Amino acid sequence: MTGIWQDMMVTGVPITEKVMRTIAVYGFLIAGLRLFGKRELGQLNPLDFIVLLLLSNTVQNAVIGNDNSLAGGLIGAAVLFITNDLLVRFAYRNPKFRRLIEGRPEELIRDGRFIRRALEHNFITQEEVVVAARKQGVDNIHAVECARLEVSGALSFKMHEPSAGDTFHKEVLERLTAIEKRLPAAVALLLLAFVPTLSAQAGPSTDVWVVPMTQGGSQVRFGEPKNLTKRTGYDNQPGFSADGKAVMYTRMVDNGPTDIWTVALPNGTPQALTTTPQSEYSAQPTPDGRTFSAIRVELPDSTQRLWRFPISGGGAPSLVLEKIKPVGYHVWAAEHTLVIFVLGSPATLQIADDRTGTSEVVARNIGRALSKVPGRNAVTFLQQVRDSAAWITEVNTLTKETKRLMTPPKGADYHVWTPGGALIVGVGSSLYIWNNGRWDVLADFASWGVRGISRLAVSPNGDWLAFVAEDTP
Question: Residue 360 sits in a domain of what CATH number?
């Protein structure tokens, strides 16, 4: 009996050595799992499973040493429990240490697109992500807003959901379709003829303003703002000519179709660039500087596509992107690269090539603001986020990857970059600038009668800023 008791309770190695061995192996395993990736915890393929099985046998002797006693095993288990409890408690109270041990969750999919660098970093294939998605009831990867590899090694999926505006738009279309089916053809035609006029009469009355601007380093200063259009009616969507000497904008006259107008700076008279039965809006200079591009609402079916127009007035306009519709807004990112807002439920951000006429969706549920980032192959846009504030988000036009930058002030739906790299937004009568991680008031134009600032544009040389404001009653 004494021999059995001695074999069970007398350890084969000193207790101090037993404690040190257990803690050393515990620390090694934590470091190993941290270095070799989160997939070892949750996304196991057969090779990973074999490694973990062999790992348990490999480190067993390192923990127990030359000891087969019951007491030695219990001491080792107790040390593991106590060490783990102390480490968990310390990590709970120290977020930096917790991030060091656990790492951070990583996005593998954003807006329906795989992030290749994240997949390669964690040695996870697209097929493994698709299988994990199917297990969670996700059949369409393109409908995924975000897929993350959590610190536990599990994959979580967040699906796109239509915004309130998209839902309302869909409901209105469904109701109109139901009404149309009940009405005689003649009455339906009468309604179709009447509704555009009613909408035009109810449209907002806005003006285009400009203000001289100077920038030195991170400092931006403004002169006195001037109302360029100064009339009752719709004057909106400003953009500068390629040389920065004139402002192009969208104008509606007598509730008719919208046209593109221009006014030379600083004291020119507004002149029409287009006078067509169709509506044109959202003019931007093309990279060659000899033409401008604009959205045309084509007759008779109101198709919205991107067209190119000669600035001189001579020659016929031509389609830029024949198959991509309905286009809402656009910005030129390079000589042949465009970033476009395409209407739909939800609206999508697409990167297009005017040589091939093709495009690729890079984001969904977006706002109407698009702005070229100076000095880089990037464009920023407003990403609508469910149950959260919208984010000003950057898309790299070469890699097609997106990155959230900051949230705008409440009510700021539009933003613009200056050539010097300053980011500006407008709310109410004020302009704000992003400065050291916060929004600072840059200027307030209330004393000039400015209110309801919305769209913004900056001249290529950075000497003028144009903005849209509500008409003063």
Answer: 2.120.10.30
Same domain membership, residue 112 and residue 80: no
Give every residue of the chain whose pLDDT is below 70, as ranges. Answer: 1-12, 33-49, 51-52, 61, 68, 99, 101-103, 139, 152, 160-204, 313-314, 387-388, 473
| Residue 348 to residue 373: CA distance in whole angstroms | 19
Same domain, 281 and 420: yes
pTM value is 0.60
Beta bridge partners of 295: 281, 306
Across 270-298, b (16+ Cβ under 10 Å) vs e yields beebbeeebbbbbbbbbbeeebbbbbbbe
Q: Provide the residue range defining the domain that includes 96.
A: 2-102
Using alpha carbons, select from 455, 15, 26, 25 the residue that is nearest to residue 247: 455
Q: How far is CA 206 from the centre of its chain?
A: 28
